[in-house]
Structures are given as structure tokens and as C-alpha cells.
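Minimal example, chain plus adenosine-5'-diphosphate.
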Amino acid sequence: SDVLVLEKLEKCYNRGKPNEITVLKGVNLTIPKGQVTALVAPSGAGKSTLLHIAGLLDTPDSGRVVLEGEDLSRARDAKRTAARREKLGFVYQFHHLLPEFSATENIVLPQLANGVSRGDAQARAADLLGRVGLTSRADHRPSALSGGEQQRVAFCRALANGPSLLLADEPTGNLDPATSDTVFDVLMDLVRETGLSALIATHNMALAAEMDRVLRLDGGALTEG
Ligand code: ADP
Ligand code: ADP
């Protein structure tokens, strides 16, 4: 079964104005369960636009966004927000962890917001932190962690509520090359172990080549390879 289906997505900014720009010109994309897809795009090609639409943060002008069989492209905001919380995990270039909370609490809080009990949330946080090798850092605040460690905590937070799909925008783009490789391996292990499907934007072709499929966004369309 397919986790995400994007159908004939069109997106234009500044329509009717001199600076009108059509970013997506009929984008189609299917992500089957368990598949990890790399998204490679030159700067300005519309990568963020595509990720925001897939992540239910923005709407296409036309086309469909089908998440686990449900077309959410024109659903009410409340429904889209609920789907975002329950089904999607986000990772960005910068960790966006809450500075005043520990690594554990950063992973616990989204679960509490989702109705999970504190005990269960803490157990899950401990399990996730163990998987990324950060058990000894569980009580540290983000500022006491290295860049690579911060990003590993961000991965755990993204997975806290057991999403079906991970959307990642340059998840290791903020790290030096050696750290980036290590942290990327941790992310891929985590994704594989949890059977997660993912769409991961990266400029790093070596990292992209380790994924199941590489798609290039250019000229408003997606092409293989
Ligand atoms: P990428 O992430 O690949 O760099 P974006 O999706 O951010 O690309 O942007 C694609 C194009 O659309 C760029 O030319 C950008 O300037 C333009 N763009 C993005 N967001 C907006 C917006 N809200 N209003 C107008 N133009 C936008
Ligand atoms: P909630 O009310 O559950 O916090 P939000 O819509 O604020 O829902 O955010 C859901 C997820 O989407 C969060 O991970 C948040 O960081 C991310 N997010 C929200 N708005 C944006 C945005 N404009 N660009 C990128 N990510 C966003």
C-alpha cells in the first residue's frame, strides 16, 4: 500500500503579477510503505514548496495530496493539523529543539500533546534515545549537546508519535561532512528499523544514493535519478 500519493500538483506564486512564478507543473509522486526516497533539487527548484505541500503546511493550486488513502489537499485545517500530528514526522536542517527542556523532554512533550501517558512517553523517549546512541545524554539540554547529537534528538522527536511518513529537509545539511555521514547513517538505521517511509531532501548525492530511490526536481517536474 502507498503511504503518500501526490497527483498532478500545480503551484504558482504571485499569480497575475509581473513576478509570477510556477514552481510545480504537474508533480506526481508515490511513496510505498517502507520506501525511502531522496529528493534532489537545485536551489530555487521548489523543494521546500513540495515538502510543505506534502507536509500539509501549504496547499497546491490543483492536484491531490493523498496520505494513507485519504485525500487531504482540500480538507479543513483542523483535519490537516490532526493528520500532520498523527501521521507525519518532520526533520529540518536546524534541530528546532526547545532550549529549556532536556533531550528526553523534547521527545516526551509531543507525545503528551498527542494524549500519551507520561510513563509511556518516557519509555518511548528512552528507547528512541538508545537507538541513536544517546542514552547518556538523555538529561542534557540542547545547548549541552554537539550539533550531531542535537540532530539525533530531533530525529527521535520526529518519530515520537510513530508517524507513517518522515519528511526531512536537508537533515544533515548543518553538520560538517564527517558528522553528517555518521548522523545520516543513524537516521537511516532508525528509519529502517521502524519500517518508516521517508522523503528526504538532500544536496549530497552520496547520501541520496544510499536511499531506495532518487528523484530530481527541476523545471517544475520530478524525474528519476
Ligand atoms: P527551494 O526550496 O528548492 O530552494 P522554494 O520552494 O523555496 O525552492 O522556492 C521555489 C521558487 O518559488 C523560488 O523562486 C522562490 O523564490 C519562490 N517562492 C517560494 N515561496 C514563495 C512565496 N511564498 N511567494 C513567492 N515566491 C515564492
Ligand atoms: P501544532 O499545532 O501541532 O504545533 P503546527 O502546524 O504548528 O502544529 O506544526 C506542525 C509541525 O509542522 C511542527 O513540526 C512544526 O515545526 C512544523 N511547521 C509548522 N509550520 C511550519 C512552517 N511554516 N514551515 C515549516 N514547518 C512548519
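The radius of gyration is 18 Å. The chain is about 35% helix and 25% strand.
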